[in-house]
Amino acid sequence: MCVVCGCSGGGAAQVQGGADAAQGAELHFGAGAARVSVPGMSAQRAIKIEADILGANNAVAAQNRAHFAAHGVTALNLVSSPGSGKTTLLCATIKALQARHPSLQLAVIEGDQQTSFDAQRIRATGAPAIQVNTGKGCHLDAPMVAEAFARLHAHAGPHEHSHEHDHDHAPGLLFIENVGNLVCPAMWDLGELAKVAILSVTEGEDKPLKYPDMFEASRLMILNKIDLLPHVQFDVARCIELARRVNPRIEILQLSATTGQGMEDWLHWLDHARGAEHHHHHAPEAESPAARVQRLQAELAQAQAALQAQGAR
């Protein structure tokens, strides 16, 4: 159970709407000051525990951030629900970057409750990967990432060396694939440059509003699996509108890791994120011509699918 994330549930709820289910009653357990309900614990105590735990985590996250910078590493925290296509996207991204920037150091920290399946898939691309199994934990935290980074290619073996050594390494890109969960990872700083939220079109366009903390905390939202748009009911425009309602500055890309559609924009975004070959600034809401074409193509495919469905009736 994750106390500060509220996974334990229970406690008193605020009732909204009618008095019963038939009248549309809603139980809101996150309406109090702590925004979470823990059985047997007051809101004040929950707030104190959360502040203590997150404070300790954030101190390590700051150390991670300084360590990444000293090594010339750009770290990105990939967050999503299970099955969004994070690992498939990572494998495709690594292969593309290996061809595009052969000298770029790539590495992955994989987070899951159990198994090393995803790390094995990453290693098959030739990139080093450390698997972090969290057990009952629902997210990675900064100390986990610190230890995992210590064991990656630039730091072979346990991280017992002095931090006074020369950090003369080639620039690198570190992908942290968090545990599949749209709730808990939102509040945990790992020392990353940015969170990247991945949402597949098979999940439903309302996710940004259902899980606002995650999309508010993310710099970029990737709409993945757009090749499936003709086969699912997913309102691309509404999803984008909801994401920007939660986070007006969020950047949005649409792609298919399977077909490669839209991958060029993602690779370009990564170049900007690590500051390579780019010294100009893009407004967060600016949409590149290629991204606009991809978005319009996706919306056209959705409209065509809707027309076909109407004709079949």
From TrEMBL:
Gene designation: hypB
Entry keyword annotation includes RNA-binding: no
Domain of life: Bacteria
Domain CobW/HypB/UreG nucleotide-binding residue range list: 77-253
Listed Pfam families: cobW
UniProtKB keywords: GTP-binding, Hydrolase, Metal-binding, Nickel, Nucleotide-binding, Zinc
TM ranges: none
NCBIfam families: hypB
Record family assignment: Belongs to the SIMIBI class G3E GTPase family. HypB/HupM subfamily.
UniProt entry tagged with the keyword Transferase: no
Entry-linked Gene3D superfamilies: P-loop containing nucleotide triphosphate hydrolases (3.40.50.300)
The protein's name: Hydrogenase maturation factor HypB
InterPro entries found in the cross-reference section: CobW/HypB/UreG_nucleotide-bd (IPR003495), Hyd_mat_HypB (IPR004392), P-loop_NTPase (IPR027417)
